[in-house]
Structure formats: structure tokens, C-alpha cells
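Record pair follows.
FIRST:
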Amino acid sequence: MRAEPKPKAVPSVSVWGAEGPLPAYVASIAMFLICMDTLITNVALPTIEVELGGGMAAQQWIVDGYTMPLAMLLLCAGNISDRLGAKRVFIAGMAGFAVASLICALANSVLMLVVGRVVLGIAGALTLPSSMSLINEAYLAERARSRALAIWGIGGSAATACGPLLGGLLVPIHWGWVFAINVPVCAVVLLMARHLPTSPTRPVPFDMPSQVLAIAGIGGLTCGVIEAGSQGFLAPLPLACMLVGVLACIAFVVRQQHAEYPMMPLALFESEGMRIALYGGFSMILSWNGMIFLSTLFLQQGLGASPLMCGLAFAPAAVTSTIGNLLSDRLTGSRGMRFSLSAGMAVLFVGYGMFVVCGGAMSSVAVSAAVCVVGLGGALTTPCLASLVLKSAGAEHGGVASAVFNTLRQVGGALGIAVFGALVEVSPSFQAGMTASLGISVALILLLFISVRRSGV
């Protein structure tokens, strides 16, 4: 009797699709580097001040020398990524990040260090939107993209702990190592990126007037707020910088209305989901960067903690943040995006509220606990916001929407450090300024929560 042929085995299809998890891992490591370079520097600031000099304004410039160009050039970098291909721009950004890290590590003056940080910010601007574009190109299915964005978010969450902890370990050797540590990580990413598929290129026109106005607007506002902390808000230089910034921002918006190929199409803001995502990204990173900046100074200068102990205080936040990112993917899949966003913001409200209620009476353990709670809330929320951006924009505007989202996040981060630092400078005590600053965070998160609950997201 003739045997029946065995049916052919159907190969299982990975949730990742044909590209596999490599693009998600590469983007996540890049996100880790970009976030870590703000946090690891915070731990080194007191030591850098002793060796190179400078006061609060110099410390702010060392941090914002990186975050400002990162914020100002993201829209331009997104445009370049579309023109030349995300993979090519990503590799160029990573290579530049390694070179700039060496400049910072070898700096022998505040000026040289700030210049190195500016170059680092430019390289980061090339890397960040192209890393998100790699995810957008690789994962067309919404479930796979949601998982990739969760892994992308884990990169930022891991930086929460690794940045301060590595800083605490490396600063006693020499503060320059907090920058030199980037180089081997960049080398690993570059080796991995070689195996990514070639990205498509698009003939997108370059809008130079808009880019100049964006640089003037963001730079003027941030510079004005930083200098207001040391000179006063009514001093001529801060007033002039802020006036230039406001006028440039207004001119930028007008330009976007009339330009044939705008850098930031205003039609993106017509979507309610997009508006919520952009405001959420801006307010959350403003609060987060400002909180880490002040908490680091409070632990070392207010409580006398060593750089290592300061890093250990932030380490548990990596665990809660990683849990939050994994929970975000599960909650979104089972309960929907609105539930995940609401839960994350409720946790954020509690975390920032701990700072406001406890004020200057916080111990290092209390600071660590509050950062853990904030890290959990932020990790629950950020992947949802990124997914909401891509979903609201559609495939045809995914690149520019990613650039706008990351631009507002970085603008928020730069302004958070500038505004919170300025409030500390003009307050009667560091503790009073810290309480007032994080009270702003509570208000911003509450407004976001209300917006989400009233929306149709």
C-alpha cells in the first residue's frame, strides 16, 4: 500500500518579521548612549568644577552644550536621514559620537569641554531620528513595532541607572573616563549596523531658512534661561536672548505655514493623538532631566554623597524602568493605549509628588525611591507616546513625525535643566528651588493626564 506523503512543515514566523530583532537592538543601544551622556555627565559635574573651574552656569553649559545642539538639529537630521537613508546617517552619527567623546575626555578647559559636548550633540542629532526611522522601516506590523519601541525605550531606561552608576565608578579614576567609555560602545554599534538592510532614500528638499530659525529660537530661549540663573531674569543679556528666541520661534511657525516643503508640517498638529504625544514627550523629558540634574547636585552637595554613592542611588531605577517598558507593551496589547498612558502618568504624579512633599528633608534612600517611581511611570508612558506619534502620522510622515517628537523631547530636556537650575539660583535655598521646580513637574503631568482622559486616544 502506498504511503501518504507527509505534509510539509510550515516554518514559524517570528513576531519580528523578516528583519529579525537586530534593528530594535541597534536602535536601543543608540538610545542608551544618547540618554546616558546626559546622566553620566551630571555625576561628574562637581569634580569637573573643582578641576576646570566654573560655577552653576558653567555646569549648565556643560550639560546643555550637548542637549541644545541635539534639540536644535533634530529636524534637520530627520530631513537628512530621509534624503541619504537612515542607515547611512545612523552610521555617520555613531562615528561622530565616538570622535566627540574623545574630545571631551581629553579636554583641559571648560571651553574645550563645552565645544566637545556641542560636537557630541550634533552627532547625537544625526543618530536619534535615524534610529527611530530604522524601527519604522523594519517593522511594518503594529505589534512588532510596539515591541521594538518598548526595547528602544529600555535603552533609555537602562541609561537611568548605568549613567550615574558608571559615573560613580569612573569619576574617582578620572572624570574624562565618563566620556571615553562611549568609544567601545560606539564601535560595537557600528559593527552591528553593518548588517542592517539598506535604507530607502527620498528626494526631500532642504529648507535652510527654517533650520536657521529653529536654531535661533531654541538656542535663544535656552541660552536666556541659563544666563538668567546667574545674572537675573531682567539683566540685558538674558532678556535679549529670550527675545531673539521668541521672535525666531514665531518666524519659524510662520515659515512653516508658507514654505512649499516645510521642515515641520503644521498639519501634523491637526491630530489630537499627535498633539498629546508631542506635549507628553516635551513635558516628561523636561521634568525628568531637570529632576536628575537637581537630584545629583542635592545628593553630592546637599547630603555629601560620593559620586559612587550617588550612582548607586539611581541604580534601582533601572529595574523599575525596565519593568515599566515590558509592562507598557503588555498593557497596551491587553487594555489599550489610553489605559497604559493613564497608569503611567498616575505613577509619575506620585513620584514627583514625593519630591514636593518631602522637599529638603529627603534622605538619599528617599531620593532613590522617588526616582524609581518616576522611572517606572516614565517607562510605562514613553513607548505609548512614541507609538502614538507613528500611528497618528501615518507611514508617509513617519520620519518627520519622529524628528518632531524627538526635537520637542530634547528641547524639553534642555529647558528642564535650564529652568530648574535658574529656579535654584534665584530661590532662597537649594531645597526651596528644588521643591518649586518639581512642583512644575507635578502640574505638567496632571495636565497631561487630564488631556489623555478627555481625549479619544
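SECOND:
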Amino acid sequence: MIDLGKLTTEQRNPATTQIDCCSTEEMVAIMQAEDAKVSEAIRKILPEIARAIDATAARLAAGGRLFYIGAGTSGRLGVLDASECPPTYGTAPELVQGIIAGGTVAMFRAQEGAEDDETLAGKDLATRHFTKDDVLVGIAASGRTPYVIGGLRYAKEIGALTIALSCSEGSEIAPLADIALTPVTGPEIVTGSTRMKAGTAQKLVLNMLSTGTMIRLGKVYGNLMVDVKASNHKLEERARRIVMQGSGCSREAAVQALQEAGGQAKLAILLLVAGCTPAAGRQALQESHGHLREAIRSFTSCPVQMAKAKED
């Protein structure tokens, strides 16, 4: 028997026991008041989130990958965050991966029984050639999902970095991880419906984790997504705007620089700011491990190098 009564996410919320009797306006006001508690829950664990970002960025910079694993809503949120990294930050699809219990079909139709198999997660990770160099974020609102527990144990055994994300105090997955992220959002508006406050908290934490990691990897310059993959008309125009905002150039100059840079906004900005050739710019970005600010500084701090880069 599973003792759900011990789980924070399964408690009844005294503020919503009469929500079915409220007017619709009163109902949404109660919902909004409960949702406002999510931000405070996350504020309390900001130091742990920062640790997770730094540790994850270090692993990825050394050649590792980031995996999310979960079941139900938690699994879908991981897959969502992973799928948004390639277009936003120009990452390879393999760099950040989301795994959901039950496979792809579970994204669209609940596969509830899949989460009860503790051995399945290890098999799913092994299929993706998960190694000690990688990072695993186990996501479970309740903190007790067997599938996630199994995944974290598997990752821990082979020496990978493990992070547990749950919303229940004293969760089972927290002790299994190197870093535990536990924004305690309290009882749900509808008892046990963790797609609500807990799901919102998980989404916000995952936003922070992936965004912070990408910033640390040099994929953001100022607040511009300079590694954006211009894969459609909207993103092509965004790339032009990024080059204009990052260099202060005209639209015409941005279009020309992007052509010279093969569509890479980061390189285009460097060409405009440093006045270097594409070859010299690529070399500078390689030496700076993709950090545009450092690449620019390498030219502007050395007039001789800048002059040579313009000649090459």
C-alpha cells in the first residue's frame, strides 16, 4: 500500500475545499492566489538551483549531456524543455534529451502503469548510451515515482551527476541525488492534481536550469540568444535583429554579415564588432569555447591581433 497521506502534494488544501461552490470569478481568484505561492517556493531553493546550473554546465563543457527523466506531467515537462534547446540555442538534439516513462506515446496519452517499473528507466538510459560524463535530472512531483527512483539509482551507480526535482518535503528521490531541488508548493487546488502548482514549479525550475546552463556555456551574449538556429522565417528575422542589437549595425549590414557568417548570428556579430574575417572569427570563438564576449575582447584588447585578423 502506498501511503499517499505522507506526501505534501497529496494533502487537501483548506483554501479550496469549497471551490466547487464558488462563482467562476471567485474560483480563478483562488487559483491565482495559490499559484502566487510557487514563486516563493522557488526563491527558497535558488542556491541549490545555482549549484545545479554550475555543475551541469561543467559536465556539458567537458563533453557530457543533460538528460531529463520522469513520468506523466513531470516527464512531459522534461521532454518539452529538452526539445526547445536546439532551436533556441543551436544545440545538437543529443545534447539535452527528455525521457518519459512509456515512450513517445506517453506524451499524448497517459501510460500510467509505465511509471511503476523501477528497472525500466535504467534500460531507457542504457539505450541512449548514458555514461558517467552525463547529467540526469529525475523529475517527480511526489518524489516517489519508481521509474524516476530507478533512473537516479542507475545514474548514481555509474558515477553520473544526479539532480532530483520534486515538490514534496522529505521526498524519496532527494537522498538519491547529488543535488536536490525541492520547491515545496503545498497542497494542490484540486487534491493530488500535480499538473497545477507542482507542474508550474517544475517548469520554472527547468527553465532556470537549461537557460542558466546555456548562459554559462556562452550561448547568450548580453540577453541575446546568439546561437539561435534560424530554421524558419521568424527565426531568420530574429537572427537579423540579434545581430543588429548585438553590434549596433543596420539591417542591411546584419543581412550581409549573416551571409558571410553562414547564418551564424554569433559569428556575424563578431565580424561586425571586431572587423575580422570569418576564418579569424571562427578561430577566436573556438579558442574562447564559444563565448562571444571573450572572443571580442581577444581582438579589442590586442590591436596587433585585430590588424592581423583583418588582413587574413
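COMMENT: Residues 149 and 173 are 6 Å apart (CA to CA).
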